[in-house]
Design goal:
The structure holds 2 protein chains of 2 kinds.
Chain A (H helix, E strand, L loop, with lengths): L2 H9 L4 E2 H11 L8 H13 L3 E6 L8 E5 L1 H12 L9 H13 L4 H25 L2 H26 L1 H8 L2
Antiparallel strand pairs in A: 1-3, 2-3
Helix pairs in contact in A: 1-2, 1-3, 1-4, 2-3, 5-6, 6-7
Chain B lengths: L7 E10 L2 E11 L4 E5 L6 H8 L7 E6 L2 E2 L5 H10 L1 E4 L11 H11 L4 H14 L15 H13 L5 E5 L7 H18 L2 E5 L3 H4 L4 E6 L2 E4 H4 L1
Parallel strand pairs in B: 3-8, 3-9, 6-7, 7-8
Antiparallel strand pairs in B: 1-2, 1-4, 4-5, 9-10
Helix pairs in contact in B: 3-4, 3-5, 4-5, 5-6
The chains are: A mainly alpha, B alpha/beta.
Keywords (chain B): ATP-binding, Nucleotide-binding, Transport
Pfam families (chain B): ABC_tran (PF00005)
GO molecular function (chain B): ATP binding
Protein backbone atom coordinates (compact mmCIF):
# COMPACT_ATOMS: atom_id res chain seq x y z
CA UNK A 1 0.00 0.00 0.00
CA UNK A 2 1.25 3.50 -0.82
CA UNK A 3 1.35 5.42 2.46
CA UNK A 4 2.09 8.72 0.74
CA UNK A 5 -0.94 8.44 -1.55
CA UNK A 6 -3.12 7.39 1.35
CA UNK A 7 -2.04 10.38 3.46
CA UNK A 8 -2.56 12.66 0.47
CA UNK A 9 -6.03 11.23 -0.05
CA UNK A 10 -6.86 11.84 3.60
CA UNK A 11 -5.76 15.45 3.21
CA UNK A 12 -8.21 15.98 0.37
CA UNK A 13 -11.12 16.39 2.75
CA UNK A 14 -9.31 19.29 4.51
CA UNK A 15 -6.01 20.43 6.04
CA UNK A 16 -4.72 18.46 9.03
CA UNK A 17 -1.84 18.33 11.46
CA UNK A 18 0.57 15.41 11.22
CA UNK A 19 -0.88 13.97 14.40
CA UNK A 20 -4.45 14.08 13.00
CA UNK A 21 -3.24 12.42 9.82
CA UNK A 22 -1.69 9.55 11.74
CA UNK A 23 -4.85 9.13 13.80
CA UNK A 24 -7.09 9.12 10.69
CA UNK A 25 -4.80 6.64 8.95
CA UNK A 26 -4.66 4.27 11.94
CA UNK A 27 -8.40 4.43 12.43
CA UNK A 28 -9.27 3.54 8.84
CA UNK A 29 -6.35 1.53 7.50
CA UNK A 30 -3.87 0.78 10.27
CA UNK A 31 -5.64 -2.05 12.09
CA UNK A 32 -2.70 -4.41 11.68
CA UNK A 33 0.10 -1.89 11.42
CA UNK A 34 -0.37 1.61 12.85
CA UNK A 35 1.92 4.29 11.42
CA UNK A 36 4.94 5.53 13.34
CA UNK A 37 5.13 9.30 13.81
CA UNK A 38 8.46 9.23 12.01
CA UNK A 39 6.82 7.71 8.93
CA UNK A 40 4.22 10.46 8.85
CA UNK A 41 6.76 13.28 9.10
CA UNK A 42 9.22 11.80 6.63
CA UNK A 43 6.38 11.23 4.16
CA UNK A 44 5.03 14.75 4.66
CA UNK A 45 8.44 16.34 4.15
CA UNK A 46 8.85 14.37 0.91
CA UNK A 47 5.37 15.42 -0.27
CA UNK A 48 6.22 19.01 0.67
CA UNK A 49 9.45 18.87 -1.32
CA UNK A 50 7.57 17.49 -4.34
CA UNK A 51 4.94 20.24 -4.17
CA UNK A 52 2.07 17.84 -3.46
CA UNK A 53 1.28 19.43 -0.07
CA UNK A 54 1.95 22.85 1.47
CA UNK A 55 2.15 24.10 5.03
CA UNK A 56 -0.96 26.08 5.67
CA UNK A 57 0.04 27.29 9.10
CA UNK A 58 2.20 26.54 12.13
CA UNK A 59 0.66 26.54 15.58
CA UNK A 60 2.48 28.39 18.35
CA UNK A 61 4.73 26.13 20.31
CA UNK A 62 6.68 25.05 17.25
CA UNK A 63 7.84 21.54 16.48
CA UNK A 64 7.06 19.58 13.32
CA UNK A 65 3.86 18.13 14.73
CA UNK A 66 2.26 21.56 14.87
CA UNK A 67 2.41 22.12 11.14
CA UNK A 68 -0.92 22.15 9.38
CA UNK A 69 -0.68 20.50 5.97
CA UNK A 70 -2.95 21.15 2.98
CA UNK A 71 -3.05 19.27 -0.31
CA UNK A 72 -2.09 21.22 -3.45
CA UNK A 73 -3.69 20.95 -6.91
CA UNK A 74 -0.75 18.80 -7.98
CA UNK A 75 -1.45 16.58 -4.95
CA UNK A 76 -5.10 16.16 -5.94
CA UNK A 77 -4.04 15.20 -9.47
CA UNK A 78 -1.56 12.70 -8.02
CA UNK A 79 -4.26 11.03 -5.88
CA UNK A 80 -6.63 10.92 -8.86
CA UNK A 81 -3.98 9.22 -11.00
CA UNK A 82 -3.16 6.68 -8.31
CA UNK A 83 -6.83 5.80 -7.80
CA UNK A 84 -7.48 5.50 -11.53
CA UNK A 85 -4.49 3.25 -12.19
CA UNK A 86 -5.31 -0.44 -11.61
CA UNK A 87 -2.88 -2.35 -9.40
CA UNK A 88 -0.73 -5.07 -10.89
CA UNK A 89 -2.73 -8.22 -10.09
CA UNK A 90 -0.92 -10.20 -7.41
CA UNK A 91 -1.91 -12.12 -4.29
CA UNK A 92 -2.83 -10.25 -1.13
CA UNK A 93 -3.77 -6.99 -2.82
CA UNK A 94 -6.77 -6.51 -0.58
CA UNK A 95 -5.31 -3.91 1.77
CA UNK A 96 -4.31 -1.64 -1.14
CA UNK A 97 -7.60 -2.15 -2.95
CA UNK A 98 -9.60 -1.60 0.23
CA UNK A 99 -7.70 1.65 0.84
CA UNK A 100 -8.37 2.83 -2.71
CA UNK A 101 -12.09 2.04 -2.46
CA UNK A 102 -12.48 3.88 0.85
CA UNK A 103 -10.52 6.90 -0.39
CA UNK A 104 -12.57 7.02 -3.61
CA UNK A 105 -15.74 7.11 -1.52
CA UNK A 106 -14.28 9.70 0.86
CA UNK A 107 -13.25 11.99 -1.96
CA UNK A 108 -16.44 11.67 -4.01
CA UNK A 109 -14.88 9.66 -6.85
CA UNK A 110 -16.44 6.57 -8.44
CA UNK A 111 -15.43 3.49 -6.47
CA UNK A 112 -17.42 1.37 -8.96
CA UNK A 113 -15.20 2.60 -11.82
CA UNK A 114 -12.12 1.79 -9.79
CA UNK A 115 -13.37 -1.76 -9.10
CA UNK A 116 -14.32 -2.26 -12.77
CA UNK A 117 -10.88 -1.13 -13.94
CA UNK A 118 -9.26 -3.54 -11.49
CA UNK A 119 -11.55 -6.37 -12.56
CA UNK A 120 -10.61 -5.77 -16.18
CA UNK A 121 -6.90 -5.84 -15.30
CA UNK A 122 -7.31 -9.10 -13.38
CA UNK A 123 -9.15 -10.74 -16.27
CA UNK A 124 -6.49 -9.54 -18.71
CA UNK A 125 -3.85 -11.41 -16.70
CA UNK A 126 -6.15 -14.45 -16.35
CA UNK A 127 -6.45 -14.55 -20.17
CA UNK A 128 -2.67 -14.50 -20.51
CA UNK A 129 -2.31 -17.34 -18.00
CA UNK A 130 -5.08 -19.36 -19.69
CA UNK A 131 -3.30 -19.00 -23.03
CA UNK A 132 0.00 -20.01 -21.42
CA UNK A 133 -1.73 -23.09 -20.01
CA UNK A 134 -3.14 -23.99 -23.41
CA UNK A 135 0.25 -23.96 -25.07
CA UNK A 136 2.39 -25.14 -22.15
CA UNK A 137 3.29 -28.47 -20.55
CA UNK A 138 1.78 -29.91 -17.38
CA UNK A 139 4.19 -27.97 -15.13
CA UNK A 140 3.11 -24.73 -16.82
CA UNK A 141 -0.49 -25.71 -16.34
CA UNK A 142 -0.07 -26.35 -12.63
CA UNK A 143 1.81 -23.10 -12.03
CA UNK A 144 -0.76 -21.12 -14.01
CA UNK A 145 -3.62 -22.87 -12.20
CA UNK A 146 -2.25 -21.70 -8.85
CA UNK A 147 -2.11 -18.10 -10.04
CA UNK A 148 -5.54 -18.38 -11.68
CA UNK A 149 -7.21 -19.60 -8.49
CA UNK A 150 -5.70 -16.72 -6.50
CA UNK A 151 -6.77 -14.17 -9.10
CA UNK A 152 -10.24 -15.68 -9.13
CA UNK A 153 -10.45 -15.25 -5.35
CA UNK A 154 -9.45 -11.57 -5.77
CA UNK A 155 -12.11 -11.15 -8.42
CA UNK A 156 -14.77 -12.58 -6.14
CA UNK A 157 -13.71 -10.06 -3.51
CA UNK A 158 -13.97 -7.27 -6.12
CA UNK A 159 -17.48 -8.40 -7.05
CA UNK A 160 -18.64 -8.67 -3.47
CA UNK A 161 -17.22 -5.25 -2.69
CA UNK A 162 -19.00 -3.79 -5.74
CA UNK A 163 -22.23 -5.28 -4.42
CA UNK A 164 -21.61 -3.69 -1.01
CA UNK A 165 -20.52 -0.24 -2.20
CA UNK A 166 -23.71 1.56 -1.13
CA UNK A 167 -23.46 0.19 2.40
CA UNK A 168 -19.73 0.95 2.59
CA UNK A 169 -20.29 4.50 1.30
CA UNK A 170 -22.90 5.11 4.00
CA UNK A 171 -20.50 3.81 6.67
CA UNK A 172 -17.45 5.71 5.40
CA UNK A 173 -19.31 9.02 5.06
CA UNK A 174 -21.10 8.72 8.40
CA UNK B 1 -25.18 2.90 -34.56
CA UNK B 2 -23.96 -0.62 -35.35
CA UNK B 3 -20.21 -1.01 -34.64
CA UNK B 4 -18.32 -1.59 -37.90
CA UNK B 5 -17.91 -5.24 -38.84
CA UNK B 6 -20.02 -6.62 -36.02
CA UNK B 7 -22.13 -9.68 -36.67
CA UNK B 8 -24.67 -9.29 -33.89
CA UNK B 9 -25.49 -6.01 -32.19
CA UNK B 10 -27.96 -4.93 -29.53
CA UNK B 11 -28.77 -1.31 -28.75
CA UNK B 12 -30.53 -0.02 -25.69
CA UNK B 13 -32.44 -3.21 -24.87
CA UNK B 14 -35.18 -3.05 -22.27
CA UNK B 15 -37.14 -5.98 -20.95
CA UNK B 16 -39.37 -6.09 -17.87
CA UNK B 17 -40.98 -9.07 -16.20
CA UNK B 18 -43.82 -7.49 -14.23
CA UNK B 19 -42.31 -4.80 -12.00
CA UNK B 20 -38.76 -6.15 -12.48
CA UNK B 21 -36.52 -4.56 -15.10
CA UNK B 22 -34.43 -7.50 -16.30
CA UNK B 23 -32.77 -5.31 -18.94
CA UNK B 24 -32.60 -1.56 -18.57
CA UNK B 25 -30.72 -0.17 -21.55
CA UNK B 26 -28.25 -2.96 -22.37
CA UNK B 27 -25.84 -2.79 -25.31
CA UNK B 28 -23.86 -5.56 -26.95
CA UNK B 29 -21.85 -6.32 -30.05
CA UNK B 30 -19.78 -9.23 -31.29
CA UNK B 31 -17.61 -9.79 -34.36
CA UNK B 32 -17.28 -13.00 -36.37
CA UNK B 33 -14.94 -15.43 -34.61
CA UNK B 34 -14.94 -13.44 -31.38
CA UNK B 35 -15.61 -14.97 -27.96
CA UNK B 36 -17.31 -12.49 -25.63
CA UNK B 37 -18.02 -13.32 -21.99
CA UNK B 38 -21.14 -11.82 -20.44
CA UNK B 39 -20.55 -11.59 -16.70
CA UNK B 40 -22.47 -10.26 -13.75
CA UNK B 41 -24.09 -11.32 -10.49
CA UNK B 42 -27.13 -13.61 -10.33
CA UNK B 43 -30.26 -11.79 -11.42
CA UNK B 44 -28.30 -9.04 -13.20
CA UNK B 45 -29.99 -9.78 -16.53
CA UNK B 46 -27.21 -11.65 -18.33
CA UNK B 47 -29.35 -14.67 -19.28
CA UNK B 48 -32.18 -12.37 -20.42
CA UNK B 49 -29.65 -10.57 -22.61
CA UNK B 50 -28.57 -13.88 -24.14
CA UNK B 51 -32.19 -14.94 -24.75
CA UNK B 52 -32.96 -11.61 -26.45
CA UNK B 53 -29.84 -11.80 -28.62
CA UNK B 54 -30.77 -15.32 -29.69
CA UNK B 55 -34.32 -14.31 -30.60
CA UNK B 56 -35.82 -16.57 -27.91
CA UNK B 57 -37.24 -13.62 -25.95
CA UNK B 58 -38.53 -10.41 -27.54
CA UNK B 59 -37.32 -7.22 -25.80
CA UNK B 60 -39.86 -4.53 -24.89
CA UNK B 61 -37.77 -1.96 -26.74
CA UNK B 62 -34.39 -1.54 -28.38
CA UNK B 63 -32.95 -3.07 -31.53
CA UNK B 64 -31.07 -6.27 -32.25
CA UNK B 65 -29.30 -6.54 -35.60
CA UNK B 66 -27.91 -9.80 -36.95
CA UNK B 67 -25.88 -9.70 -40.14
CA UNK B 68 -27.49 -6.42 -41.17
CA UNK B 69 -31.06 -7.56 -40.47
CA UNK B 70 -33.18 -6.42 -37.57
CA UNK B 71 -34.47 -9.35 -35.51
CA UNK B 72 -37.71 -7.63 -34.54
CA UNK B 73 -38.58 -7.15 -38.22
CA UNK B 74 -38.43 -10.91 -38.82
CA UNK B 75 -41.43 -13.20 -38.55
CA UNK B 76 -41.51 -16.18 -36.18
CA UNK B 77 -40.68 -18.63 -38.97
CA UNK B 78 -37.65 -16.61 -40.05
CA UNK B 79 -36.39 -16.31 -36.47
CA UNK B 80 -36.87 -20.06 -35.93
CA UNK B 81 -34.90 -20.79 -39.11
CA UNK B 82 -32.14 -18.52 -37.83
CA UNK B 83 -32.02 -20.40 -34.52
CA UNK B 84 -31.83 -23.75 -36.30
CA UNK B 85 -29.23 -22.78 -38.87
CA UNK B 86 -27.16 -19.75 -37.93
CA UNK B 87 -27.25 -20.09 -34.15
CA UNK B 88 -26.04 -22.89 -31.88
CA UNK B 89 -26.87 -23.34 -28.20
CA UNK B 90 -25.17 -24.88 -25.17
CA UNK B 91 -26.95 -24.79 -21.83
CA UNK B 92 -25.82 -25.53 -18.29
CA UNK B 93 -27.35 -29.01 -18.17
CA UNK B 94 -26.81 -30.23 -21.74
CA UNK B 95 -30.53 -30.62 -22.36
CA UNK B 96 -30.00 -33.64 -24.56
CA UNK B 97 -32.97 -35.75 -25.64
CA UNK B 98 -32.77 -38.79 -23.32
CA UNK B 99 -34.41 -41.23 -25.77
CA UNK B 100 -31.88 -40.54 -28.54
CA UNK B 101 -28.27 -41.77 -28.71
CA UNK B 102 -25.47 -39.20 -28.44
CA UNK B 103 -24.95 -39.45 -32.19
CA UNK B 104 -28.66 -38.87 -32.87
CA UNK B 105 -28.66 -35.93 -30.45
CA UNK B 106 -25.79 -34.27 -32.30
CA UNK B 107 -27.43 -34.99 -35.68
CA UNK B 108 -30.80 -33.62 -34.53
CA UNK B 109 -30.37 -29.94 -35.63
CA UNK B 110 -29.39 -31.15 -39.12
CA UNK B 111 -32.37 -33.52 -39.26
CA UNK B 112 -34.67 -30.64 -38.26
CA UNK B 113 -33.18 -28.66 -41.14
CA UNK B 114 -34.16 -31.45 -43.54
CA UNK B 115 -30.78 -33.17 -43.95
CA UNK B 116 -31.08 -36.91 -44.70
CA UNK B 117 -30.32 -39.23 -41.78
CA UNK B 118 -27.13 -40.77 -43.17
CA UNK B 119 -25.58 -37.44 -44.13
CA UNK B 120 -26.62 -35.86 -40.84
CA UNK B 121 -25.12 -38.69 -38.77
CA UNK B 122 -21.95 -38.63 -40.85
CA UNK B 123 -21.42 -34.93 -40.04
CA UNK B 124 -22.40 -35.54 -36.42
CA UNK B 125 -19.82 -38.32 -36.09
CA UNK B 126 -17.15 -35.95 -37.39
CA UNK B 127 -17.98 -33.56 -34.57
CA UNK B 128 -17.97 -36.34 -31.96
CA UNK B 129 -14.48 -37.30 -33.16
CA UNK B 130 -13.32 -33.72 -33.02
CA UNK B 131 -14.52 -33.45 -29.43
CA UNK B 132 -12.86 -36.79 -28.59
CA UNK B 133 -16.12 -38.57 -27.71
CA UNK B 134 -16.83 -40.71 -30.78
CA UNK B 135 -16.79 -43.78 -28.51
CA UNK B 136 -20.06 -42.48 -27.01
CA UNK B 137 -21.91 -42.37 -30.34
CA UNK B 138 -24.27 -45.28 -29.53
CA UNK B 139 -24.77 -44.45 -25.85
CA UNK B 140 -27.76 -42.55 -24.53
CA UNK B 141 -27.31 -39.37 -22.41
CA UNK B 142 -28.21 -41.27 -19.22
CA UNK B 143 -25.21 -43.55 -19.77
CA UNK B 144 -22.53 -40.83 -20.00
CA UNK B 145 -20.94 -38.52 -17.39
CA UNK B 146 -21.81 -34.85 -16.97
CA UNK B 147 -18.60 -33.74 -18.68
CA UNK B 148 -19.12 -36.15 -21.59
CA UNK B 149 -22.76 -35.04 -21.93
CA UNK B 150 -21.65 -31.42 -22.11
CA UNK B 151 -19.19 -32.26 -24.89
CA UNK B 152 -22.08 -33.87 -26.76
CA UNK B 153 -24.03 -30.63 -26.26
CA UNK B 154 -21.06 -28.63 -27.64
CA UNK B 155 -20.91 -30.94 -30.68
CA UNK B 156 -24.65 -30.45 -31.22
CA UNK B 157 -24.26 -26.66 -31.01
CA UNK B 158 -21.63 -26.67 -33.75
CA UNK B 159 -22.98 -29.31 -36.12
CA UNK B 160 -24.92 -26.91 -38.39
CA UNK B 161 -21.87 -24.66 -38.80
CA UNK B 162 -23.47 -21.79 -36.87
CA UNK B 163 -22.14 -18.25 -37.07
CA UNK B 164 -22.99 -17.59 -33.42
CA UNK B 165 -22.92 -20.03 -30.50
CA UNK B 166 -24.83 -19.01 -27.37
CA UNK B 167 -23.44 -20.72 -24.27
CA UNK B 168 -25.30 -20.15 -21.00
CA UNK B 169 -23.14 -21.28 -18.07
CA UNK B 170 -21.82 -24.21 -20.13
CA UNK B 171 -19.55 -25.44 -17.33
CA UNK B 172 -21.85 -24.55 -14.42
CA UNK B 173 -22.56 -28.18 -13.57
CA UNK B 174 -19.02 -29.51 -14.09
CA UNK B 175 -15.92 -29.84 -11.89
CA UNK B 176 -12.86 -27.68 -12.68
CA UNK B 177 -11.06 -30.19 -14.88
CA UNK B 178 -14.09 -31.15 -16.98
CA UNK B 179 -15.20 -27.53 -17.21
CA UNK B 180 -11.78 -26.54 -18.46
CA UNK B 181 -11.75 -29.23 -21.13
CA UNK B 182 -15.23 -28.24 -22.36
CA UNK B 183 -14.10 -24.61 -22.61
CA UNK B 184 -10.92 -25.57 -24.49
CA UNK B 185 -12.88 -27.65 -26.97
CA UNK B 186 -15.67 -25.10 -27.40
CA UNK B 187 -13.36 -22.15 -27.99
CA UNK B 188 -10.94 -24.09 -30.23
CA UNK B 189 -13.79 -25.39 -32.38
CA UNK B 190 -15.47 -21.99 -32.55
CA UNK B 191 -12.24 -20.21 -33.49
CA UNK B 192 -11.40 -22.71 -36.19
CA UNK B 193 -14.86 -22.29 -37.77
CA UNK B 194 -14.96 -18.49 -37.19
CA UNK B 195 -18.12 -18.87 -35.11
CA UNK B 196 -18.71 -16.09 -32.59
CA UNK B 197 -19.44 -17.24 -29.03
CA UNK B 198 -21.64 -15.38 -26.55
CA UNK B 199 -20.56 -16.92 -23.26
CA UNK B 200 -22.68 -16.22 -20.19
CA UNK B 201 -20.79 -17.11 -17.04
CA UNK B 202 -20.27 -15.95 -13.49
CA UNK B 203 -16.93 -17.78 -13.27
CA UNK B 204 -13.82 -15.71 -13.96
CA UNK B 205 -11.76 -18.75 -14.96
CA UNK B 206 -14.34 -19.57 -17.64
CA UNK B 207 -14.49 -15.93 -18.79
CA UNK B 208 -10.69 -16.06 -19.19
CA UNK B 209 -11.25 -18.15 -22.34
CA UNK B 210 -12.94 -15.16 -23.97
CA UNK B 211 -11.38 -12.34 -26.00
CA UNK B 212 -13.31 -9.67 -24.14
CA UNK B 213 -15.93 -9.38 -21.43
CA UNK B 214 -18.93 -7.23 -20.76
CA UNK B 215 -20.42 -6.88 -17.30
CA UNK B 216 -24.17 -6.70 -16.74
CA UNK B 217 -25.39 -5.05 -13.55
CA UNK B 218 -28.99 -4.17 -12.80
CA UNK B 219 -29.92 -4.79 -16.43
CA UNK B 220 -27.28 -2.41 -17.82
CA UNK B 221 -24.21 -3.61 -19.64
CA UNK B 222 -20.74 -2.26 -19.50
CA UNK B 223 -18.04 -3.04 -22.04
CA UNK B 224 -14.94 -2.54 -19.92
CA UNK B 225 -12.32 -2.57 -22.64
CA UNK B 226 -14.22 -0.31 -24.99
CA UNK B 227 -15.18 2.16 -22.29
CA UNK B 228 -11.65 2.46 -20.92
Amino acid sequence: MSISHTLLGLLESGPRHGYDLKRAFDQRFGHDRPLHYGQVYSTMSRLLKNGLVEVEGVEPGGGPERKRYAITDAGITDVAQWLAEPEKPEPYLQSTLFTKVVLALLTGRSAADLLDAQRSEHLRLMRELTERKRTGDLADQLICDHALFHLEADLRWLELTAARLDALAAEVRA
Amino acid sequence: MTPAGSLLTAENLRKAYGPTNALDGAHFSIHPGEVVAVMGPSGSGKSTLLHCLAGIVTPDSGTITYDGRELSAMGDAERSALRRGDFGFVFQFGQLVPELTCLENVALPLRLNGVARKAAEGTALGWLERLEIDSLARKRPGEVSGGQGQRVAVARSLVTGPRVVFADEPTGALDSLNGERVMELLTEAARSTRAAVVLVTHEARVAAYSDREIVVRDGRSRDLERSS
